[in-house]
Amino acid sequence: MAEGRLQGPVLVVGAGLLGTSLGLTLTKLGVPVWLRDTSSEHLRTALGLGAGQIAPDIAPPPQLVVVAVPPDVIGETLRWALTHHPQAVVTDVGSIKTGPLEQLRARGSQGLARYVGGHPMAGSERSGPLAASAALFDGRPWAVTPHQDSSADAVELVLELVRMTGATPVRMSPDEHDRAVARTSHLPHLLASLVAGRLVDAPPGHLALSGQGVRDVTRVAAGDPDLWQQIVTGNAPAVVHLLGEVRDQLDELIAAVSKGKRKELTAILEQGVAGTTAIPGKHGGPARQTASVFVSVPDHPGELARLFADAGASGVNIEDVRIDHDPGRPTGLVELLVAPDMEEHLLTSLESRGWVTHR
Amino acid sequence: MAEGRLQGPVLVVGAGLLGTSLGLTLTKLGVPVWLRDTSSEHLRTALGLGAGQIAPDIAPPPQLVVVAVPPDVIGETLRWALTHHPQAVVTDVGSIKTGPLEQLRARGSQGLARYVGGHPMAGSERSGPLAASAALFDGRPWAVTPHQDSSADAVELVLELVRMTGATPVRMSPDEHDRAVARTSHLPHLLASLVAGRLVDAPPGHLALSGQGVRDVTRVAAGDPDLWQQIVTGNAPAVVHLLGEVRDQLDELIAAVSKGKRKELTAILEQGVAGTTAIPGKHGGPARQTASVFVSVPDHPGELARLFADAGASGVNIEDVRIDHDPGRPTGLVELLVAPDMEEHLLTSLESRGWVTHR
To answer: Do A200 and B274 count as a contact with CB atoms less than 8 A apart?
Structure first.
């Protein structure tokens, strides 16, 4: 049984990636979760994964309703939840916060004090319950967006939900939230789509030169187009404002490149560099300096274990690991990221145990 | 001593990221490498890393000269190399291939048959000799761009250089190369710069909502602005052509979003999805399907080793590893990527050994 104020039951409406992940997280914490979804296939999958149960016919009222449906139907689902569960606090996990609130106000929904919006920054290019994980929210920012009529109790309960998932609550107004995600999520997604769209027309053979850069830039563009058209449409004013700024700067860029104006081009590139350093480090902390140690590892089950055992024996803490696997080769390349002052010690230690490092 | 046709000595002109990495790779293979750089600091660093030596006063002529200088000075450095090393094959590792060749032709350079351009797709947002690694080229595409007067012997020697580094040679004409990288490298870089540039003006607190998406989209924009203005300026016609296409589609996008035309917006997003699937899998193979197993791991040196030992004992091959570290917490979250049909077996096996998994 959970120990905090949030004891459940929690009704999760919508068994997609976010709803199912939340159900898994809360179930593991001992909070009773009831699931609903208009798609019987999604619902069956989520139930099968252990993300919750169907609400019994005779049941105590839910303490909290979490609306995790597509953007277009969030407003009406919130209204339904506030009406049908008159004692519950109601939140949602949608990507836009002002639109649904305006809908509730326009329709004079009852119980608006019990509604507090939320938005975990934990989507991915994958979707649906099969991509769900109880770890999805761990360490991610989760916007909590009270409006002027939200009760303090409702806000506190939603903040507790966020903390229980391991996410970091970021409190802001619905309007601030929408302008923030236009910049940090919707604009990057749309520009990634434009870059990826140009790849479709590539002459034969040209994409053989694709490196890590274009993969990184375009990764998010693989996201579900129907979901994203709803998100972008729902946040149109803020998105159009930023797209207009990008268009103006694109015109400047085209002029600079076509006329060979290097100073203007450099200024645009320098502003980009400044932007990359403006992003806070993971979990809000400063980015940690690391050094990379490269090791060749034969592609057998036991070898990676042996490498980590040897790295562990060296006493060096591994900050991160990247594996570059080539299906056509007998060895993979493993990159171990460690504190810079540990690099030489780890290299020497691994070499003394017979590993092939790349200095 | 190396066994193939490429015996060296190899003269590497320019001790930045690429030149130093190449020096490290060839030195490890037993090929004698001589280094030159106008920056005595870069040269000292590269020599200290073991990437090669200063050419002795009395020395055999180099078999191969690799020009690894900034784009603006590639043409004149190639000309110098062809003139001063009349028996050597000459190549370069620059990001643009037509401009330097035109410069050589315009100035009637001698020995053009001995020149074959090249371009490893192995840059990164880091630069300079300290970021160098002998593993930098392993598994990466490396364009080899003979022109109509290149001799077959020269082409073969450059192809051998590429293969010795572990890279995959991709042969194409200089013109095709420049149009290809405009699409797969220069356009993504510039659009990433525009997205990153918008982050600079973000109101306080907004960037707290930055997720993995915006980090991925903007990562390349951290690259050296002076290097990139040279690359983009050197490939201006191909870049401007693609930027024009993007601008047209950006106008369509702005119209679709501001007028709520969902079908048009969806079409643009769908084209983006198609683009992401057009990128070939790593090393040209198809992308491998994987499933993710999440495990909580205490943040001590020995724990990761114990996890891999236990994973190894399960007999499951780990395809990739991601570690989500929170400096403020006692545990990290490790994501093990495995073949989908191995997921359940690995989960069960790790749980039976006491690991906390996230199902």
So the answer is: yes
How far is Cα A117 from Cα A293, in angstroms, rounded to an integer? 44
Classify residue A254 as exposed, middle or buried by CB count within 10 Å of its CB (0-12, 13-18, 19+).
middle
Residues 6 or more apart in contact with residue B165 via CB below 8 angstroms: B22, B25, B26, B120, B137, B138, B142
User: Does residue A345 or residue A198 have the better pLDDT?
Assistant: A198
What is the Cβ-side half-sphere exposure of residue A107, based on CA atoms within 13 angstroms?
17
Q: What is the ipTM of this complex?
A: 0.81
Strand, helix or coil for residue A298: strand
Q: What is the pLDDT of residues B16-68, one digit of tens each?
A: 999 999 999 999 999 999 999 999 999 999 999 899 999 888 888 999 999 99
Residues in chain A with CB shorter than 8 Å from the CB of B324 are 138-139, 282
Say how far residue B197 (Cα) sits from the centre of its chain. 23
* Contacts A191 to B, Cβ<8 Å: 191-192, 194-195, 217
Which runs of E-coded beta strand occur in A123-229?
A: 141-145, 168-171
> Do B116 and B158 meet the contact criterion of CB atoms below 8 Å apart?
yes
Q: Average pLDDT of B64-78? A: 96
Compute the radius of gyration of chain A from its Cα atoms.
24
Q: Say whether pLDDT at A152 is over 70.
A: yes
**Ramachandran angles phi, psi of A191, nearest 5°:** -70, -35
Q: What is the pLDDT of residues B254-309, one digit of tens each?
A: 999 999 999 999 999 999 999 999 988 644 444 556 788 888 777 666 677 778 77
Strand-pairing partners, residue A336, are: A293, A321
Q: Which domains does chain B have, with CATH numbers?
A: 10-172 (3.40.50.720), 291-358 (3.30.70.260)
Q: Which long-range contacts (CB under 8 A, 24 or more apart) does B253-259 make?
A: B253/A190, B253/A194, B253/A243, B254/A240, B254/A243, B254/A244, B254/A247, B257/A232, B257/A233, B257/A236, B257/A239, B257/A240, B257/A243, B258/A236, B258/A240
Residue-wise pLDDT for B182-229, tens only, equals: 999 999 999 999 999 999 989 989 999 998 889 999 999 999 999 999
- Across the interface, do A185 and B213 touch by the CB < 8 Å criterion? yes
Helix (H, G, I), strand (E, B) or coil at B97: coil
Chain A partners within 8 Å of B223 (Cβ)? 273
- Distance from C-alpha of A278 to C-alpha of B196, rounded to nearest angstrom: 9
- What tokens appear for A177 in the block? 């939230």
Cα–Cα distance measured from residue A330 to residue A325, given in angstroms and rounded to the nearest whole number: 9
Q: What are phi and psi of B58, to 5 degrees?
A: -105, 115
